[in-house]
Amino acid sequence: MQDAYVALGANLGDREASLKEAIRRLRAEPHLELLRLSPVYETAPVGYTDQPSFLNMTIGLLTSLGPVDLLRRLLAIERDMGRVRDIRWGPRNIDLDLLAYGKVEMDTPELTLPHPRMGERAFVLVPLKDIWPKEVPFPWEKQLSAMSLREEGIARFAARGDSE
Ligand SMILES: Nc1ncnc2c1ncn2[C@@H]1O[C@H](COP(=O)(O)OP(=O)(O)OP(=O)(O)O)[C@@H](O)[C@H]1O
Ligand SMILES: Nc1nc2c(c(=O)[nH]1)N=C(CO)CN2
Predict the structure, then answer these.
(1) 7,8-dihydro-6-hydroxymethylpterin-pyrophosphokinase domain: from which residue to which, for each copy (predicted)?
(2) How far is Cα 149 from Cα 35, in angstroms, rounded to an integer?
(3) How high is the ipTM of this complex?
């Protein structure tokens, strides 16, 4: 079994319901065991800014799938939830990114690990730090401490991703 971290984001429709539905689908996946769910944050859009604010969170899991198969399951969940791709970094009802898979480093057109843009993204690093094992140094500590969370426009939205 390998540990892996996934980022979830939603900024269209009922954002909270979309996160919950994605979590439900991840729980129903064979070969995956969800271990930790971060709090949910409301975050200002980054990259393409003329769009609604996002809800973001992260999940830590264990899996017997390899990294590419895990990514394909995440993309299948996005697709099954009706995700439409048009504008790069544009609005989406659900986004599932694979942040890290064990200590694997790879760079192929299909999958780059760790996720190449995560070190610049407070909306990823803040909820990832929340669930990172306390006994393991957080690899993005420097980037995170250099960020002003107020300027990044990130605020706690709910206690847990699966809270009712
Ligand atoms: N670590 C990764 N996690 C998710 N997708 C990845 C990763 N590395 C490469 N990709 C590829 O990126 C493609 C586009 O992903 P997606 O549409 O979610 O990008 P995005 O969320 O708009 O932007 P960003 O990649 O900056 O988060 C996917 O089809 C996938 O093959
Ligand atoms: N706040 C926020 N901004 C974004 C997000 C996101 O999840 N949250 N995702 C993007 C594409 O991956 C682009 N911009």
Answers:
(1) 88-99
(2) 26
(3) 0.96
pLDDT tops 80 at residue 151 = no
Question: What is the pTM for the complete model shown?
Answer: 0.94
Which secondary-structure segment (H or E) carries 54? strand 54-63
Residue 5 has pLDDT above 80, yes or no: yes
| Among 52, 60, 18, residue whose Cα is nearest residue 36 | 60
- Please tell me the distance from the alpha carbon of residue 75 to that of residue 98, in angstroms, as a whole number: 10
Say how far apart CA 91 and CA 146 lie, in whole Å: 27
85 is catalytic: no
Q: Is the pLDDT higher at 161 or at 32?
A: 32
Provide the 3-class DSSP secondary structure of residue 144. Answer: helix
Rounded distance between C-alpha atoms, residue 85 and residue 154, angstroms: 24
Give nearest CA residue, ligand 2 atom 10.
89
Q: How far apart are CA 109 and CA 90, in angstroms?
A: 20
79 catalytic, yes or no?
no
Cβ of 95 closer than 6 Å to ligand 2, yes or no, is yes
CA dist., res. 44 & res. 63, Å (int): 31
